[in-house]
From TrEMBL:
Annotated signal sequence range: none
Record key words, sorted: Hydrolase
Keyword Repressor appears in the UniProt entry: no
Pfam families: HAD_2
GO BP term, pick one: DNA repair
Native organism: Clostridium botulinum
Lineage: superkingdom: Bacteria
InterPro entries cross-referenced by the UniProt entry: HAD-like_hydrolase_sf, HAD-like_sf, HAD-SF_hydro_IA, HAD_2, HAD_sf, PGP-like_dom2
One of the record's GO molecular function terms: phosphoglycolate phosphatase activity
Protein name: HAD family hydrolase
Length: 209
């Protein structure tokens, strides 16, 4: 293994409380979404794209209105996160700092453009990560974005770290080993390696790939 590609939500940080505040502020502006989403509902859709989330909870939205709602959610969310950041998982920076000495580090997440940048800049973590990708920039699903990062950075033996079934599926499609972050939002029984906290990544020595 020469590199680690990370999911963001449920893997590096938990921003669901920020989503709850920001999304519901945006939802109140439209009759079709004014009932909003609960915190638990938001936690249960982590790993999905915003487009898929709105399709699931507000299927009555037209394509045009769904785009407007996404834009409004994004505007409020990015403003909030750029100022406040999210809830980092325990020992994140110290672990990432140590990992960066041994592996090249990347992020691929199903998020809006600017979201990964908020994570990196609000918490001063940009110096540890070489590259990142998201579907708002490529128009592609997570597996393809993993492949893009691998090709762009000439990675030989990468592994993907994530917490949901969507991450496991993407890893499989991309042909890379999957490290399951069990402390996140998912509940999985199929993975190549499991960690119960971020620090356990420092002890990985037997991942194939």
């Amino acid at each position: 293994m020469d590199s680690l590609i990370f999911d963001l939500d449920g893997t590096l940080w938990d921003a669901t409380e920020a989503f709850y505040i920001c999304w519901n502020e945006a939802f109140l502006k439209y009759d079709e979404t004014k009932n909003g989403m609960s915190l638990e509902e938001i936690k249960n859709v982590m790993g999905m794209t915003m487009d898929d989330i709105l399709e699931k909870f507000f299927p009555q939205l037209s394509e045009e209105l769904r785009k407007d709602v996404i834009d409004e959610c994004t505007k409020i969310e990015l403003k909030y996160l750029s100022k406040n950041g999210g809830k980092l998982y325990p020992e994140l920076e110290s672990t990432i700092k140590e990992l960066s000495k041994k592996y090249r580090l990347f992020i691929v997440s199903n998020c809006v453009n600017g979201y990964i940048q908020c994570f990196l800049e609000a918490h001063n973590l940009k110096k540890y990560f070489i590259d990142f990708e998201d579907p708002s920039r490529t128009g592609l699903e997570k597996a393809e974005n993993i492949k893009i990062v691998i090709k762009r950075n000439k990675l030989i033996k990468p592994a993907y770290v994530g917490d949901t079934k969507w991450d496991a599926i993407a890893s499989d499609k991309a042909g890379v080993p999957f490290i399951y972050a069990s402390y996140g939002f998912g509940d999985l029984d199929k993975y190549d390696y499991k960690i119960d906290n971020l620090k356990e990544l420092l002890n990985i020595t037997n991942i194939k790939g």
